[in-house]
Design a protein that fits this description.
The complex is a heterodimer of chains A (about 110) and B (about 120). Chain A is mostly beta strands and about 110 residues long. Chain A contains no helices and 11 strands. Classes of the chains: A mainly beta (about 110), B mainly beta (about 120).
Chain lengths: ~110, ~120
């Protein structure tokens, strides 16, 4: 059974700092991995999607990497801003066509 | 293009009552998924529709939950009778095809926060 773990559960950083969020999964037989952002009381916003054949994806200040064989992904946020404060979730898609989510990392960027 | 729409955004009901959640997927998306997050836990899969057919309902917790997608458009998720442990946030997602889901991922709605008291 696929299990997804995110470390740390919570993170506070001063504005401007670069940071890394971690995601690990137990079964490497995945189709893709998706990083989401969730603001309080809001839905899930897709940030980046990495196919199983890819190593990384970039969007603006965000860079996500995937090491499928070791079951790990990282989300790198450069030059963090207070507006980046949110919960970040990673999810892997399996052949069963559904997503397995981690419990998320709650990020606070302090002005 | 309108996104995935869910309503109500918040529902508070008493234990034993019935609640119906609704999801309108992106127009033209054949695949519709329900997920939920209960307090302190990760978001978990409930079920998957392809058009009006249930493709996979392995995540449905018990027979108090009934999902329908008549006509292959919007979907409803009914909880009857509701129990305290059903409290959480119920998310809906859609994708155009299975292949699209693999390529582009899923689009999620903003969720319905259900509180059973």
């Amino acid at each position: 059974k696929q299990e997804v773990t995110q470390i740390p559960a919570a993170l506070s950083v001063p504005e401007g700092e670069n940071l890394v969020l971690n995601c690990s999964f137990t079964d490497s037989a995945i189709y893709n991995l998706q990083w989401f952002r969730q603001d309080p009381g809001k839905g899930l916003t897709s940030l980046l999607l990495i196919q199983s054949s890819q190593r990384e994806q970039t969007s603006g200040r965000l860079n996500a990497s995937l090491d499928k064989s070791s079951g790990r992904s990282t989300l790198y946020i450069a030059a963090s801003q207070p507006g980046d404060s949110a919960t970040y979730l990673c999810a892997v898609k399996t052949g069963a066509n559904n997503l397995f989510f981690g419990t998320g990392t709650r990020l606070t960027v302090i002005p | 293009e309108a996104g995935v729409t869910q309503f109500p955004s918040h529902s508070v009901i008493e234990k034993g009552q019935t609640v119906t959640l609704r999801c309108d997927p992106i127009s033209g998306h054949d695949n519709l998924y329900w997920y939920r997050r209960v307090m302190g836990k990760e978001i978990k899969f409930l079920l998957h529709f392809v058009k009006e057919s249930k493709q996979d309902e392995s995540g449905m917790p018990n027979n108090r939950f009934l999902a329908e997608r008549t006509g292959g458009t919007y979907s409803t998720l009914k909880v009857q009778p509701a129990e305290l442990e059903d409290s959480g946030v119920y998310f809906c997602a859609s994708s155009e095809t299975k292949a699209t889901a693999s390529l582009n991922g899923y689009t999620f709605g903003s969720g319905t926060r259900l509180t059973v008291v």
